[in-house]
Amino acid sequence: MQYFLSESVWDTEQVNGRRLDLMRGQTATAPHADGVIVIDDSGDRRDGTATAHVGRQ
Question: Where is this region: Disordered (predicted)?
Answer without folding.
Answer: 34-57
